[in-house]
Write a structure and sequence with these properties.
This protein is of the alpha+beta class and 318 residues long. It is 43% helix and 19% strand. A hairpin with a 6-residue loop joins strand 4 and strand 5 (57-59).
Amino acid sequence: MDILAAVLSTAAVRGSVAATLTAGAGWGLRMAEVPGAAFHAVTSGSAHLEVAGRPPIRLMPGDVVLLPTGVEHSLLGSPDARAEPFDHVRAEAALAEGGRLVIGEPPVTTQIICASYDQDPAARWSPFAALPPVVYLPALSAPPGLRTSLSLISDELAGAGPGLRPVLDHVVNIVLIQLLRAWIEASSHTAAAPSWLRGLADPTTRSALGELHRDPAFPWTIESLARQVGVSRATLARRFGSEVGTSPGSYLNGWRMELAARSLRTGTDTVGAVARSVGYGSEYAFNRAFARHHGVPPGRYRSAAGSVPGARGAVPGH
């Protein structure tokens, strides 16, 4: 079971290009806090990333950085440059015309792709919540696939042909998966708090997570899960606690409630059908479990989610 794909789909994570910057000398941009995650990739030249309370990072060609919480930050041509507020309207207009947002004084030496990722605000599971405040991947550590994706972005910008924006948006979604893969495989993930994302780096917990996601309605016990994974009960409990940060039973219950909430927000199945789909034979037991987890019973949750036109998941308790 592809756990990463399942979480991205359930949380409805989607990316979009915010701007393509071409910069000369003496430039600086301050990016206000955004509700989603912010992403930058330097395709030529260099830039300095500044986030309050953290050491500056010099970004070189091929470097990428993800700010999972969309915290306010600055991109500067030099450490002493003055940062001006980022002009979203101007950037959007330039991108709509297939062009770049030009900043600083000529000659142009730097090109940066700026993107953002958002998700269903009602979703409680997200790859961003499991990441450190800044994920920096230098070009030398980037896997070949990620370098290829960045080259594709550069080629698309150079050609600026029809359909540029959807191509760029699709590629930045691919880039997110490649970046998450690289983070999982890097030793730096061990410095992060235990989570399902960190658990994907450990063979034992990855196998256990795969079984839980493959059949969340199955009446799993730690004994049956350990037997399926091929380890002892004690080994599974220990590894799951250290890498994922909870027990298999608690993890499964949380994932079931996330799947159920998603079905209630976006689907038309009855509450009873949703209950059965996540392993509850009794609708009454499901209602109680759902209310404990989400703060309201499933019927009220569904009504609230559908009561605000155009709002994804505007429900009580979120």
